[in-house]
């Protein structure tokens, strides 16, 4: 029933949409970034942030401040907001919101598994995990020796279980395996999320499919670039691409056989939306690609707010806030290490 | 008009005369000067560094230090409230300490407190571990005994305990007591420990999966709550014992235990060893408890000493922060030796400010004095009304609608009386009025005590408006006496009733009515009318007409105030083309109605006023017949109608056209003038904050605005008059509601001869009176009175687009909630 959401959307979703739009207006503005970039010390940053919505989260921090504290507190605010929204949400919005966290969950699983592989302390690893991707038995991940155990012991209880069907092997875990596992999981997750959004229908499906397709394509490009020069075969590489998105299926075929960054570029330039991204980057360069992709993503996420009565705003808000925290982290790092000239290298402005 | 000119100046009607002033303060006396100004609290400094972000300002370091100090103070407050110490602010110790000293002292206290916290934290952790160990010993011992009894003797030999790898210092005493026997064979072993109750289920499942079911899990609730080291809350815990076999399984289980945050403690096999261990642990526990208690006492003492000073410190830091925030608003002059500030102050306060500044420069031994002088201003000054304890609440009521434009007529002056009065017209019952009076008197008599403490949001509101409530109650009593209602019961206070029944049984009072046999009742409504046939028609007619009279007079007052405003600002245009047609329009229609009402009351005529008013429009020349009230009525009506019709275009058209004419005249021949004036401006006074903006005259906008205004007034004249009928409607509703409660509850219950029913009836009556009539009805009458003031009265003259005068004042700073 596309186009008729306006009739009934507000019954369950109206309050939360208002909340999320309110949160969105609390994102840091251009002048905030302007001021932040002029800070001399982390205390200046704290002082400036205390005038924003981050104020209550930072005001009780003792003064020699660390970048990690800033990031931790800012993330805490995002988590608090997310939890509030999740508490208020009804089906299917609550499922939608939970879907958003699965990505963080995958990252956390990979982080813990890699960490244990390198014999790190579990508690230390747990502190590094994103709080949105936590689940009960996450610490037990350290027990597992191979994929099969990982699945059977721990992940079977988590929502990630269905995504695991493709990567159950008895091989011992190593870095390569884990990376493949991450991408396989991510592929399954994106596809599942995509199907879920399609099932919701309406504007949610329309906007989310656009956003998720962009995400899938970006991952495809990243996988390709990262796997250039590794022992990953073409077929294996091909298997890691999500089965939707603008590049699917012909772009994937071409990406799978790409051997260097310029080939990737020539593939991508056939797609008008990505042409502009690659147009910003000079030949042979992959460093700035991340930033270009982030900028494009932020633009799309902001556009999601232009339409009403759909769930993509929640996704977009979480992503934007995350980007903002990334920006804050970068700025505070630069300030802390006296590299202020490099601030603009990685900050993606959100307006 | 001559009469108005001779009136004394109306000081209370206008906000204070404000002036824009500039202060130039040498740096060395800046801090003292600003803090003196803060004590005085009569100068509002403008932020001259608006384009600078907070950390680029001059005194950012001091602000940061204050922020850091207030963080420490918040930390102390937190600790104090956690420790459950009631802070008794002791005003006795008013020793003056300066900021540096305070800073040092605060960080000392913080370090001390943090150390104590860390120590007690450590102790507490040890204590918790021992406590857990004790619980495990008690519970797990039981399992083991049971297991031993059931197991085959051969197997039991192999059972042995495994050490958890935990190398906490708490376990050192255990090391000599139990030595694990080297396990040569893979037999049945066990691990015992304790885990959060909430995690227990997943823990068991995980163990089951990890060992593929080759384990035996035993658990029992710990019975005691143990403090969680992370959150500091008490949590329910469960003691468990896992039996398993094999070295690999042991590693796995230990890892899982670690992952789940379960603490493992070894339990010796034999009963005697267990007993011995339990004794030792208990002994140590009691020792630790003593130590912990001592530590707590010490900490509480330290906290109590902080608590006694905390309030003073908080105030002091707040003041300092306020001073530096204000200093940050000032600009450096070219030489960097002086700070320059601009701001508003009431003109009357200039000498006071000057004096304070002089004191400041003397006290700080400054060589150079502080310069304080006036500036020209082109922006609208802030609005500042001096209020006292009595008028404050009324001013708040007006400000809630909008802060008055600078030197605009202040409706609060009239609201002091009209607001409670209109309320009382709707709430006329002297019984209820007495209750309100009692309530407000309690608030007023305990003013000192209540004012100093924090109240709930509702009480805060009632307390803030205590004088409003007092006046409302007094007027309610007055109106109640006129309506002759005491909890809806009429009383014969002012003499004998003028009416009597037709016969002795008085049964036909409802149907046939009463007979008048003497002079009318001297004050208010005749008590005998209650329940008679003519009661409702009479009261309705009385209250309706009264509402219209009150409404027309209040609206007229509003329009007259707009005249005073126009005269004050010297705008004859507004007088001629706004005030005059408005006055004529309103009074030719509704003023006339009010006149008819008064004539009807005086003459006792039977004329139908609806008819008169309606046919005045429909058929102005028709014969009035029996509705004629006075000679020449028809001619007067035609004249009034014509005046009203003329008044509409009068207020609509001339003003915008005249404005346009004035505008074009002003700019005629200015083509060469602009350059000259702008140069002259620069020469004239470079210091003045002169921000001349070119006003564009947009005729269509002005015209549309005037059209909206006129239409609003014309339609509003009708609807606002009708709106005043709410006075009648609410008063009717109030009296009917209280009659229902009185007759259907109290009298009904009184009819029974049972004490219980009577008491129950009385209770329900009291409850309904208190909550429905005294609280809800008060609220509704209050809101309606508020509306009548905001819309019907203030809409006639009030702009309300000014901004409040917010001086830098320590007193306001201290009141501010943090």
TrEMBL record, chain A:
One GO term (biological process): vacuolar acidification
InterPro entries per record: ATPase_csu/dsu_sf, ATPase_V0-cplx_csu/dsu, ATPase_V0-cplx_dsu, V-type_ATPase_csu/dsu, V-type_ATPase_csu/dsu_dom_3
Sorted UniProt keywords: Hydrogen ion transport, Ion transport, Transport
A GO CC term attached to the entry: vacuolar proton-transporting V-type ATPase complex
Single GO term (MF): proton-transporting ATPase activity, rotational mechanism
Record function comment: Subunit of the V0 complex of vacuolar(H+)-ATPase (V-ATPase), a multisubunit enzyme composed of a peripheral complex (V1) that hydrolyzes ATP and a membrane integral complex (V0) that translocates protons. V-ATPase is responsible for acidifying and maintaining the pH of intracellular compartments and in some cell types, is targeted to the plasma membrane, where it is responsible for acidifying the extracellular environment. Subunit of the integral membrane V0 complex of vacuolar ATPase. Vacuolar ATPase is responsible for acidifying a variety of intracellular compartments in eukaryotic cells, thus providing most of the energy required for transport processes in the vacuolar system.
Family of the protein in this entry: Belongs to the V-ATPase V0D/AC39 subunit family.
Complex formation: V-ATPase is a heteromultimeric enzyme made up of two complexes: the ATP-hydrolytic V1 complex and the proton translocation V0 complex.
UniProt protein name: V-type proton ATPase subunit
Lineage: Eukaryota, Viridiplantae, Streptophyta, Embryophyta, Tracheophyta
Automatic annotation (TrEMBL), chain B:
Transmembrane segments: 421-445, 465-483, 546-564, 584-601, 636-653, 755-776
Coiled coil: 92-126
GO terms (BP aspect): vacuolar acidification
Keyword hit for Ligase: no
UniProt cross-references to InterPro entries, sorted A to Z: V-ATPase_116kDa_su (IPR002490), V-type_ATPase_116kDa_su_euka (IPR026028)
A GO-annotated cellular component: vacuolar proton-transporting V-type ATPase complex
Membrane topology term: Multi-pass membrane protein
MF (Gene Ontology): ATPase binding; proton-transporting ATPase activity, rotational mechanism
Localization annotation: Membrane
Record's signal peptide: none
Described function: Essential component of the vacuolar proton pump (V-ATPase), a multimeric enzyme that catalyzes the translocation of protons across the membranes. Required for assembly and activity of the V-ATPase.
Sequence similarity: Belongs to the V-ATPase 116 kDa subunit family.
The protein's name: V-type proton ATPase subunit a
Species name: Musa acuminata subsp. malaccensis
């Amino acid at each position: 029933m596309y186009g008729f959401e306006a009739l009934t959307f507000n019954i369950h979703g109206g309050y939360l949409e208002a909340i999320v739009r309110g949160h969105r207006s609390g994102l840091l503005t251009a002048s905030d970034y302007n001021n932040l970039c002029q800070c001399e010390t982390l205390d200046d940053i704290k002082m400036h942030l205390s005038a924003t919505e981050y104020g209550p989260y930072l005001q009780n921090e003792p003064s020699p401040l660390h970048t990690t504290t800033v990031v931790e507190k800012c993330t805490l605010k995002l988590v608090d907001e997310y939890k509030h929204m999740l508490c208020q949400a009804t089906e299917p919005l609550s499922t939608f919101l939970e879907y958003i966290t699965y990505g963080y969950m995958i990252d956390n699983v990979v982080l813990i598994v890699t960490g244990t592989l390198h014999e790190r302390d579990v508690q230390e690893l747990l502190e590094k995990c994103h709080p949105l991707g936590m689940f009960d038995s996450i610490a037990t991940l350290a027990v597992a020796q191979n994929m099969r155990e990982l699945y059977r012991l721990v992940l079977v209880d988590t929502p990630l279980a269905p995504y695991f069907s493709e990567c159950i092997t008895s091989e011992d875990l190593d870095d390569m395996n884990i990376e493949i596992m991450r991408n396989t999981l991510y592929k399954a997750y994106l596809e599942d999320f995509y199907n879920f959004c399609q099932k919701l229908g309406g504007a949610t499906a329309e906007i989310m499919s656009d956003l998720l397709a962009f995400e899938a394509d970006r991952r495809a490009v990243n996988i390709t670039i990262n796997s250039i020069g590794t022992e990953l075969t073409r077929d294996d590489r091909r298997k890691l691409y999500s089965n939707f998105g603008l590049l699917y299926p012909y772009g994937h075929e071409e990406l799978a056989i790409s051997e260097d960054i310029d080939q990737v570029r020539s593939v991508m330039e056939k797609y008008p939306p990505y042409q502009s991204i690659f147009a910003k980057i000079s030949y042979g360069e992959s460093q700035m690609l991340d930033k270009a992709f982030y900028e494009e993503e932020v633009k799309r996420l902001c556009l999601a707010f232009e339409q009403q009565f759909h769930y993509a705003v929640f996704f977009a808000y979480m992503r934007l806030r995350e980007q903002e925290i990334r920006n804050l982290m970068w700025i505070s790092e630069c300030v802390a290490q006296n590299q202020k000239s490099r601030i603009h290298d990685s900050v993606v402005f959100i307006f | 008009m001559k009469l108005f000119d001779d009136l004394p100046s109306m000081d209370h009607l206008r906000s204070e005369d404000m002036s824009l002033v500039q202060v130039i303060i040498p740096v060395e006396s800046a801090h003292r000067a600003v803090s003196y100004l803060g004590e005085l609290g009569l100068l509002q400094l403008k932020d001259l560094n608006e384009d600078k972000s907070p950390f680029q300002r001059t005194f950012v370091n001091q602000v940061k230090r204050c922020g850091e100090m207030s963080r420490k103070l918040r930390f102390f407050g937190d600790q104090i409230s956690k420790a459950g110490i009631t802070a008794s602010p002791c005003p006795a110790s008013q020793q003056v300490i300066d900021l540096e000293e305070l800073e040092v002292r605060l960080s000392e206290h913080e370090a001390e407190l943090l150390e104590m916290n860390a120590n007690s934290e450590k102790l507490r952790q040890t204590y918790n571990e021992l406590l857990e160990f004790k619980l495990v010993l008690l519970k797990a011992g039981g399992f083991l005994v049971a297991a031993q009894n059931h197991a085959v003797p051969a197997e039991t030999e192999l059972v042995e305990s495994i050490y958890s790898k935990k190398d906490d210092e708490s376990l050192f005493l255990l090391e000599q007591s139990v030595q694990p026997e080297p396990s040569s064979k893979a037999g049945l072993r066990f691990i015992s420990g304790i885990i959060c109750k909430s995690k227990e289920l997943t823990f068991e499942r995980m163990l089951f999966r990890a060992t593929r079911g080759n384990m035996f899990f035993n658990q029992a609730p710990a019975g005691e709550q143990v403090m969680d080291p992370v959150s500091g809350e008490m949590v329910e815990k469960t003691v468990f014992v896992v039996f398993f076999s094999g070295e690999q399984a042991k590693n796995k289980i230990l890892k899982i235990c670690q992952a789940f945050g379960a603490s493992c403690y070894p339990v010796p096999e034999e009963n005697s060893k267990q007993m011995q261990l339990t004794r030792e642990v208990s002994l140590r526990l009691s020792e630790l408890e003593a130590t912990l208690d001592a530590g707590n006492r010490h900490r509480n003492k330290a906290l109590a000493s902080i608590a006694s000073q905390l309030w003073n410190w908080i105030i002091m830091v707040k003041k300092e922060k306020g001073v530096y925030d204000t200093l940050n608003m000032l600009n450096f002059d070219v030489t960097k030796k002086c700070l320059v500030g601009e701001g508003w102050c009431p003109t009357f306060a200039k000498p006071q400010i000057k004096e304070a500044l002089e004191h400041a420069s003397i006290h700080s031994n400054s060589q150079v004095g502080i310069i304080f002088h006036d500036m020209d201003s082109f922006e609208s000054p802030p609005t500042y009304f001096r209020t006292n304890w009595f008028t404050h609440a009324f001013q708040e009521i007006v400000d809630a609608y909008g802060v008055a434009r600078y030197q605009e007529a202040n409706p609060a002056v009239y609201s002091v009386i009209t607001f409670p009065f209109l309320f009382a017209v709707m709430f006329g019952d002297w019984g209820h009025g007495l209750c309100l009076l009692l309530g407000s008197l309690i608030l007023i008599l305990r003013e000192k005590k209540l004012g100093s403490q924090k109240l709930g949001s509702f009480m805060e509101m009632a307390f803030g408006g205590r004088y409003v409530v007092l006046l409302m109650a007094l007027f309610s009593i007055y109106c109640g006496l006129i309506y002759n209602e005491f909890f809806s019961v009429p009383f014969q206070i002012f003499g004998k009733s003028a009416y009597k029944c037709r016969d002795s049984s008085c049964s036909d009072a409802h149907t046939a009515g009463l007979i008048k046999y003497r002079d009318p009742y001297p004050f208010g409504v005749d008590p005998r009318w209650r329940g008679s046939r003519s009661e409702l028609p009479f009261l309705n007619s009385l209250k309706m007409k009264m509402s219209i009279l009150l409404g027309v007079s209040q609206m007229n007052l509003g329009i007259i105030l707009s005249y005073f405003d126009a005269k004050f600002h010297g705008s004859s245009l507004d007088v001629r083309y706004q005030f005059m047609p408005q006055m004529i329009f309103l009074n030719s229609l509704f003023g006339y109605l009010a006149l008819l009402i008064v004539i009807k009351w005086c003459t006792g005529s039977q004329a139908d006023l609806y008819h008169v008013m309606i046919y005045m429009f429909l058929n102005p020349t028709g014969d009035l017949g029996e509705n004629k009230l006075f000679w020449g009525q028809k001619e007067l009506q035609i004249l009034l109608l014509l005046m009203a019709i003329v008044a509409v275009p009068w207020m609509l058209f001339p003003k915008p056209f005249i404005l346009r004419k004035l505008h074009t005249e002003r700019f005629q021949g200015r083509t060469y003038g602009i350059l000259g004036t702008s140069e002259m401006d620069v020469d004239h006074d470079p210091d003045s904050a002169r921000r001349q903006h070119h006003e564009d005259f947009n005729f269509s906008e002005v015209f549309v605005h005037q059209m909206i205004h006129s239409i609003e007034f014309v339609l509003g004249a009708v609807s606002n008059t009708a709106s005043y009928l709410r006075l009648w409607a609410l008063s009717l509703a109030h009296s009917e509601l209280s009659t229902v409660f009185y007759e259907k509850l109290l009298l009904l219950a009184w009819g029974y001869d049972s004490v219980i029913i009577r008491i129950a009836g009385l209770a329900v009556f009291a409850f309904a009176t208190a909550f429905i009539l005294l609280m809800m009805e008060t609220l509704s009458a209050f809101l309606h009175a508020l509306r009548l003031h905001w819309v019907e009265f203030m809409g006639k003259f009030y702009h309300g687009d000014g901004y409040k005068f917010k001086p830098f004042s320590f007193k306001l700073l201290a009141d501010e909630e943090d």
